[in-house]
Design goal:
The complex is a heterodimer. In chain A, 43% of the residues lie in helices and 12% in strands. By secondary structure, chain A is α/β, with parallel strands linked by helices. Chain A has 5 domains: 2-65, no CATH class; 75-154, no CATH class; 164-216 and 231-283 and 418-445, no CATH class; 284-350 and 366-414, Rossmann fold; 448-526, YaeB-like fold (2-Layer Sandwich). Chain B has a 3-stranded antiparallel β-sheet with strand order 2-3-4, with no helix packed on it. Classes of the chains: A alpha/beta, B alpha+beta. The structure holds zinc ion. Residues 15, 17-18, 20, 43, 45-46, 48 of chain B line the site of zinc ion.
Chain lengths: 536, 70
């Protein structure tokens, strides 16, 4: 067949009148670095010529040519919605990334593509050559930031959320109450604290009960959003503060509940341990009593049902965590279903690399693809995986739901916690813990706008979610407008329309004051600044 | 971002600050060091500028995105 191709090229060149011999490399058989998965193909014998001397008949030739697999090396593309989304394959993507980074003048068409990769490393594991497109995307993001060419809107919200998590609103470091040293420190992470703050409380109570020597608590951001956004200065600065806090506690062993935190810490702090590995070694907590489908005739015969495990993409190279999670599930009486892409091959939920902020449509495709892999209930051990799947209607537990075992029906169907409530949950968690465990009075928060009560219907809340507008942004707009009178009025219905630009985004809110609060009718924003002429 | 603005509406708004009528006028805008002049609704009397949802999520968003990629 190779000879046939060679002859065809010669014929083509001859007919075109070009050189028969120039630049004829890569013809015939040679060892390639590319890989073809031949699973699903049955090998077919060579088509024999009916007349040896006359060669193939046209029909025979077509039949013989039909044996060609027209092979392509696309294993990584098959496993990744991101690669599929952009319709090509790594060689082309690498060229686009390179061109985008080296362009001096003109439009950088590749920005969104480079910022849409979840940096999850799956392609690097699938590829027999270990080609990891995410590494190229991440290095290029860093280069874009350094050159001042990173689109400001790309990661703005995620980085502001990170700033919130490292602010007084959420960040805190304490020894265990009644202790002045810490052998361990629990680091729950921003997203578990946002999605299910009650689990943070339960886990902390469990750890302080089970572990001797003091279990401190540190709440703040691990820095992942800055790392993913390619902002190494911000990442290193965040890490520096974190490290100083950790040293202040006496360098305790860090226990992480979030796989992303784990991936950020494991090479930077000694003996970082995942909560799952630790819980696998300790006695599991006593579970709540209303476990729906479990029989109560003892752990041996208990079948709590089947769950399909969503491995967090940041545990890709952590078989110890994969095994610990499965052992915990088995101990709890669950039958474990493995998804087609699991453990080292697992798929990201769309949060990794900040994909869903940069490219929400792709984020949605990624989730749809992943949740369609099995009809079994999923169990995730990353709060973002759980929330992203739940947001699109997939029954998904967090592993802690099953470990503590209360209200499982409710847990499986619990909707995603929206962006405003994520920040509120974190702030509330801090105040609650400071009050209940450390007996500290919460600091009074500044800002008159905080007392403005908003009436939001589901439609407006969805708009806020899609447009990344927080309750706080809306409260600030209304407070300013009502204080200064700078707003527009619709004489027909009495609605007000006002704007406020805290820093780099101008927020517009259409609202209508009611007795119980202020009804919000619409919100939108823009980044462009209007240079008002003032009062001529 | 989901940027599906509502249908174009005729201007319903009046300036809440001075009660003035709004008319299209020249407005200066700036993004990433680029300045331009656009036609937008502003109060005839005090100059307060109204950016509609349609503009913010439509044309303005497009311009922002293309300036960010420059
Ligand atoms: Zn006016």
């Amino acid at each position: 067949m190779a000879d046939g191709r060679k002859a065809a090229v010669s014929i083509d060149r001859y007919l075109q009148g070009v050189s028969l011999t120039a630049a004829r490399i890569g013809e015939g058989t040679y060892e390639t670095k590319l890989y073809v998965n031949t699973k699903g193909f049955t090998s077919l014998p060579v088509v024999t010529m009916s007349h040896k001397t006359e060669g193939y008949t046209p029909e025979e030739a077509v039949q013989e040519a039909g044996r060609c697999l027209n092979c392509q090396c696309l294993e990584c593309v098959k496993g990744c919605k991101y690669m599929e989304h952009y319709g090509s394959y790594p060689k082309n993507y690498l060229r686009q990334i390179y061109n985008n980074d080296t362009i001096v003048m003109g439009i950088r068409h590749g920005n969104k593509m480079i910022n849409s990769c979840s940096l999850c490393g799956q392609c690097g594991v699938i590829c027999p050559q270990g080609l990891d497109l995410g590494q190229a995307c991440k290095a290029t993001r860093e280069s874009m930031v350094t050159k001042g060419k990173m689109p400001p809107s790309a990661h703005d919200f995620a980085l502001r959320d990170m700033a919130f998590n490292n602010s007084e609103e959420f960040a805190m470091t304490r020894h265990q109450p009644g202790h002045n040293s810490s052998k361990y420190v629990f680091f729950p992470g921003c997203q578990l604290s946002a999605s299910s703050p009650e689990h943070v409380e339960k886990v902390y109570a469990y750890l302080t009960e089970k572990l001797p020597g003091g279990v401190g608590l540190m709440m703040r951001c691990c820095g992942a959003p800055a790392d993913w956004a390619g902002n190494q200065d911000l990442f290193q600065n965040s890490l520096k503060v974190l490290m100083a806090e950790w040293e202040r506690l006496g360098k305790p062993q860090i226990i992480v509940a979030c796989s992303t935190c784990h991936s950020m810490f494991k090479d930077r702090f000694p003996e970082v341990i995942s909560l799952w590995e630790l819980m696998d070694h300790l006695e599991l907590p006593v579970r709540g009593d209303n476990i729906s489908s479990a029989s109560t005739s003892g752990p041996e015969s208990r079948t709590a049902g089947k769950v399909a495990v969503q491995d967090a993409c940041t545990t890709r190279h952590e078989p110890v965590i994969h095994d610990a999670v499965r052992r915990i599930l088995t101990k709890l009486g669950y039958e474990v279903e493995e998804l087609p892409y699991n453990k080292a091959l697992t798929k990201c939920c769309g949060f990794g690399g900040l994909t869903s902020f940069v490219n929400p449509e792709l984020g949605k495709e990624i989730v749809e693809d992943r949740i369609s892999e099995s009809t079994t209930d999923y169990v995730a051990y990353c709060a973002m995986c759980r929330d992203n799947f739940a947001a699109q209607g997939k029954r998904t537990f967090h592993l802690l739901d099953l470990i503590f075992g209360t209200n499982l029906e409710e847990a499986a169907n619990r909707p995603k916690v929206g962006i405003s409530y994520r920040q509120e949950n974190r702030a509330k968690l801090k105040r609650k813990l400071l009050h209940s465990l450390w007996k500290e009075a919460p600091q009074e928060k500044e800002g008159a706008y905080r007392s403005i009560k908003l009436l939001l219907n589901e439609k407006v809340e969805q708009i806020m979610e899609d447009r990344l507008i927080l309750r706080e942004d809306i409260q600030q707009v209304i407070e300013l407008a009502e204080r200064t009178g700078i707003k527009f009025i619709n004489p027909d219905n009495g609605h007000s329309l006002a704007h406020f630009r805290p820093v780099k985004v101008t927020y517009w809110v259409e609202y209508n004051p009611q007795e119980q609060g202020i009804e919000v009718l619409n919100v939108y924003s823009h980044r462009m600044e209007i240079l008002e002429d003032g009062h001529e | 971002m989901s940027n599906t603005p509502k249908k174009t509406q005729k201007n319903l708004w009046k300036c809440g600050k001075c009660g003035g009528e709004l008319k299209l006028g020249v407005v200066r805008a700036s993004y990433l060091g680029n300045d331009f002049e656009v036609q937008e609704l502003k109060c005839l009397h005090c100059g307060l500028v109204l950016i509609t949802e349609e503009l913010a999520l439509g044309k303005m968003f497009e311009v922002e995105q293309s300036l960010e990629d420059k």
